Amino acid sequence: PFKSWVYFLLAKDTGLVKIGKTTSPKKRITCLRTMSPVKLEVVALVRAHEYHEAMIHKALSKYRAHGEWFKMEGDVIDLIKKAAEGGIRPLHEYICRSAIDTEESIV
To answer: Rg of the chain's alpha carbons, rounded to an integer?
Structure first.
């Protein structure tokens, strides 16, 4: 069973999305919203293993703005759609397919 969640929070005014992990999504998202100077919207939230977040970060590294914040464009949008539509399984398959397409290891 999955023990963690991977969340995708869109900072609307910036066009950036934070991709993070937590075991307590409500608490974590509330905390981030309290600290953020801009409105944060949950665009996807999926049950996952802890390592999935690192896989996602690596797969999307060319879109990284800073830390866990990524530009909301290209593969980032595609990945969020996969997460919102079907959870971690299609998300995991998408990440693995992307790694094969670029001939890179993501683990």
So the answer is: 13
CA angle in degrees (0–180, nearest 5) for 20-49-12: 20
pTM score: 0.83
Q: Is the dihedral of CA 46, 51, 53, 56 positive or negative?
A: negative
pLDDT in tens, the chain (107 residues): 788 999 999 998 899 999 999 999 999 999 999 999 999 999 999 888 888 899 999 999 999 999 999 999 999 999 898 888 876 665 666 666 655 454 444 33
Residue 32 CA to residue 29 CA, distance in Å, equals: 5
Rounded to 10 degrees, what is the CA torsion of 53, 54, 58, 60? 10
Cα dihedral: 7, 10, 15, 21 (round 10): -20
Helices (H), 1-67: 25-35, 50-59
